[in-house]
Amino acid sequence: MLSSMPNHTRQRTRAAALLAACGLTVSLAACAGGLPGGVVYPHITPAEGSPRVVTHTFTFEDSPVSLAVTVDGGVYAGATASKKSVTRFGNARENDWIQDYYPAFIEEEHQDAFYDALLSSLRAVRDERTLDADRYAELITVFVQSLDYRTDPVDLSPKFPIETFVELGGDCDDKTLLLAGLLSREGYDVAVMLFDAEQHVALGIREDGDGYAGTGYAFVETTAPGFVGMVPDELAGGVTLASPPQVFSIDGGTTRFTAGDEVRAILETREAAIAEASRLVTEIETADAELAVLAASVETDRARLDALRAAGDLAAYNAGVAPYNRHVDEYNDAVTARNALAERYAALASLEDLIVDGLADRFGTYRSILAHPL
Fold it and tell me: Which ranges of the chain have pLDDT less than 50?
């Protein structure tokens, strides 16, 4: 059948409580001493550390991509040791910190060399394969999706992108922040989407039209393979996305994703294939039941003819041959019709496999379904 952060808070605001579901915490520093109003965000203080060479291989558009990137070990060590909570003091208003929390991780300046090195490798792939802006965004997306999805059962704090890359994995907010950092530095208009109720974080990339839930951004899942604009049927644990997301724009550029129509065509084709395949299952089951009746009738006729011949009753035997042959023809026609249903089901299953296997290749998958329409 086809598939259809620990709590370091001394005083938490209501907004912080909402964001804590994804590991976000906030602390309120004492106001004594006349501290100026402001917010201190997570930041990196480089420590001691040797350079680290990080290698990773993944598949994009049906071809392997191998990356080898040298990372400053001191910056990575400083990132892992940093506090991921926000300190709000003085006259800072209750919600001043929220909009800039995720950007603080993405735009931390000590990661500049890391971004440059990683993007240099990705640009080399782009240039070698002459990828346009849409396919380049997909290359970067597929790279991040290919990193392991893993959660820390103790510390749910977001990681700096350099941490996620060096560790070649992370959870939904970790991977989303890495992808947002890479795409924004390449001039794409992106945003972080926070789903409070579902405790989930995903990326948005600007597209033409209303975008996901009227945000103007195409939904991008980072924890598993999927096209830009493809919302998963369910997340880990059987969770489905139903709440409207909070949207946190990331400073970047104006480049949009323009292949949304192709993605929608692929997904509509998949939905139609699944629906037709579901109908075919019932039709095949009905056909099999009818075949069983016809087979029994043919077998009864054959046994009767054998008995007549054995008894020497040739007249009755000859009279029974035509009805027997008619039943055999009906059975054979029913077998042909049943096999046609099975072949159609197999073709739909192959189309479903083509789409699922092509989640890292929107460009090729779309052209394949054009060549093999329903």
Answer: 1-36
How does strand 148-149 pair with strand 217-220? Answer: unpaired
What are 208-265's pLDDT values in tens digits? 999 999 999 999 999 999 999 999 999 888 889 999 999 999 988 999 999 999 999 9
- Domains of the chain and any CATH numbers: 50-74+99-258 (3.10.620), 262-371 (1.10.287)
What is the rounded end-to-end Cα distance, in angstroms, of the chain?
18
- Grouping H, G, I as helix, E, B as strand and the rest as coil, residue 370 is helix
H/E element holding 67?
A: strand 63-71
Check residue 24 and give its pLDDT.
Answer: 45
Stated pTM of the model: 0.85
Beta strand pairing call for 148-149 and 169-170: parallel
Query: Following CA atoms 42, 46, 47, 50 in sequence, which dihedral angle do they give, to the nearest 10 degrees?
Result: 130
Amino acid at 141: T
Which residues are CB-contacts of 1 (< 8 A; sequence separation ≥ 6)? 277, 278, 281
The sign of the CA dihedral 103, 105, 109, 112 is negative
User: Of 252, 258, 253, which is closest to residue 207 (Cα–Cα)?
Assistant: 258
> Does residue 357 contact residue 349 with C-beta atoms inside 8 Å?
no
DSSP 246-302: EEEEES---B-B--HHHHHHHHHHHHHHHHHHHHHHHHHHHHHHHHHHHHHHHHHHH
pLDDT (0 to 100) of residue 37 = 55
28 and 91 Cβ atoms separated by less than 8 Å: no
Q: Show Cβ contacts of residue 283 under 8 Å, excluding neighbours closer than 6 positions.
A: 341
Write the single-letter amino acid at 166: V
Handedness of CA 107, 109, 114, 118 (dihedral sign): positive
